[in-house]
Design a protein that fits this description.
It comes from Rhodobium orientis. This is UDP-glucose 6-dehydrogenase. The chain is 44% helix and 14% strand. With 435 residues, it is α/β, with parallel strands linked by helices. α5 links the parallel β4 (79-82) and β5 (115-119). It binds nicotinamide-adenine-dinucleotide and uridine-5'-diphosphate-glucuronic acid. Uridine-5'-diphosphate-glucuronic acid binds next to α9.
């Protein structure tokens, strides 16, 4: 079976490389000629652990290639995935479907009869039917199938998540669509990985409901952390205690600076907009969005207050800019709001991130970028742990303190033991528990 993957970003490239690992022939297409040129040279345009080996293996086996020529590759494909971006539309927060619609038109004009078009991008309910309409209008009378195949991988563990998913969800509209999706995912050993075969609408909605629920869970524990601070509780103890209840589960209960990334923020906004559009407001998610927005400002204010009554002119050293570890993605990272708020208060920011400094430089032009964590601490009045990269977990806090001018450690991921911070002579400000 020949696969064409339209869109070679985080999802398209990982999915394409993983399908080629299963033995399928995959062509990854992108409009971004620079991206395709890098891939053709064997360079991986994003940081994603394990992806380089997978891509190299697929390419050398002749099962994976890259092109900007959508028409040729679609003409030869049995299945065409759409994995283009679905960002937030400015103003109303609805998903901007223009890239999906454009891809649908291009596919329609190039496909051969019998093609299965599978939508992997996260799309609001009704989009697959809309794509079906667009394709049928462009190529009247040509037979094709439509399927919805939302993706649940996380950045930073994308390859592992794709290869060992908790489940695969496929929305189908006919037998050919169902049979094709079953064949594509058969290599996963579907006795171990449940496959939910359902309608197009259910599959579309399940993707948003999953992300909305997870974003709400993170936001819930962040509010618990706030309460713990007021009453002398410890959010990590509460998270373990409630997480032992199998109905709650222990995942996604780490208090932090607010969720970010290329998906939770835009997907919660789109989900809330869908609720409003259909007159079924999703009030929990509306509140989740609002609480998460104000949390980022609250985090910046905590850092400012750790600097003392007159923060202007002081220096803060930030460890971690990416929205989570093991990725170079800075889209809607809490760090962006936090750093900009600090700078707005007259604070100088020095920062280091193992992989995300390249993409962040343009967004945060006033930051002094440092090559290593110890260099970042030089002359700082406060140190802020913002993204919990493993490389930051075992830092020598005494050495950090020795390089700093001040003595505040604001730990927005609860990475450091309080006694280590105290032993190093640092005033320690964790989240949701006593210092
Ligand atoms: P991305 O921005 O990294 O990549 C999208 C790519 O599509 C870009 O390289 C762009 O140039 C290309 N593109 C756009 N229009 C095109 C066209 N007509 N032809 C060829 N290429 C085209 O996006 P992403 O992070 O991979 O996300 C893609 C979709 O998957 C989104 O809907 C997102 O919500 C969803 N998703 C993302 C993740 C994630 O972890 N990033 C996880 C699950 C689902
Ligand atoms: C998320 C989902 O986990 C994936 O299943 C989904 O496929 C993806 O969105 C998507 O639709 O794009 P991702 O954004 O890569 O994946 O990262 P997560 O690990 O979910 O983290 C999201 C945000 O929540 C990060 O800012 C992270 O720091 C924060 N978070 C997560 C916490 O603050 N605490 C937690 O306990 C977990």
């Amino acid at each position: 079976m020949k696969i064409t993957m339209i869109g070679t970003g985080y999802v398209g490239l990982v999915s394409g490389a993983c399908f080629s690992e299963f033995g399928f022939d995959v062509t990854c297409v992108d409009v971004d000629a620079a991206k395709i040129a890098r891939l053709e040279k064997g360079e991986i345009p994003i940081y994603e652990p394990g992806l380089d080996d997978l891509v190299a293996r697929g390419v050398s086996a002749g099962r994976l290639d890259f092109t900007t020529n959508l028409e040729d590759s679609v003409q030869n494909a049995d299945v065409v995935f759409i994995a283009v971006g679905t960002p937030s539309r400015r103003g109303d927060g609805e998903a901007d479907l223009r890239y999906v619609h454009a891809a649908a038109r291009q596919i329609a004009n190039a496909m051969r009869p019998g093609t299965v078009i599978a939508i992997k991008s996260t799309v609001v309910v009704g989009t697959c039917r809309e794509v079906q309409r667009i394709v049928a209008e462009e190529r009247p009378g040509v037979d094709f199938s439509i399927a919805s195949n939302p993706e649940f991988l996380r950045e930073g563990s994308a390859v592992e998540d794709f290869m060992r998913p908790d489940r695969v969800i496929c929305g189908v509209a006919d037998e050919r669509g169902e049979e094709t999706m079953r064949r594509l995912y058969r290599p996963l050993n579907l006795r171990e990985t449940p496959m939910v075969i359902t309608t197009l609408e259910n599959a579309e909605l399940a993707k948003y409901a999953a992300n909305a629920f997870l974003a709400m869970k993170v936001t819930f524990i962040n509010e618990v952390a706030n309460l713990c601070e007021a009453v002398g509780g410890d959010v990590q103890v509460i998270a373990s205690a409630i997480g032992l209840d199998k109905r709650i589960g222990n995942k996604f209960l780490h208090a932090g600076p607010g969720f970010g990334g290329s998906c939770f923020p835009k997907d919660t906004r789109a989900y809330a907009a869908t609720g409003r559009k259909y007159g079924r407001p999703q009030q929990l998610i509306e509140a989740t969005i609002e609480v998460n927005e104000s949390r980022k400002i609250d985090m910046a204010e905590r850092i400012l207050s750790a600097l003392g009554p007159d923060p202007a002119g002081k220096t803060v050293a930030v460890l971690g800019i990416a929205f989570k570890p093991n990725t170079d993605d800075v889209r809607e990272a809490p760090s962006l709001v936090i750093v900009q708020t600090l700078e707005g208060a007259g604070v100088t920011v020095r920062a280091h991130d193992p992989e995300a400094m390249g993409p962040a430089k343009e967004l945060l032009p006033n930051v002094t970028w440092c090559d290593a964590p110890y260099e970042t601490a030089e002359g700082a009045d406060a140190l802020v742990m913002l993204t919990e990269w493993n490389a930051f977990r075992a830092l020598d806090l005494k050495r950090m303190r020795g390089l700093m001018r001040g003595d505040a450690l604001v730990d927005l991921r609860n990475v450091y033991p309080a006694e280590d911070a105290r032993d190093a002579g640092l005033r320690y400000f964790p989240l949701g528990k006593a210092a």
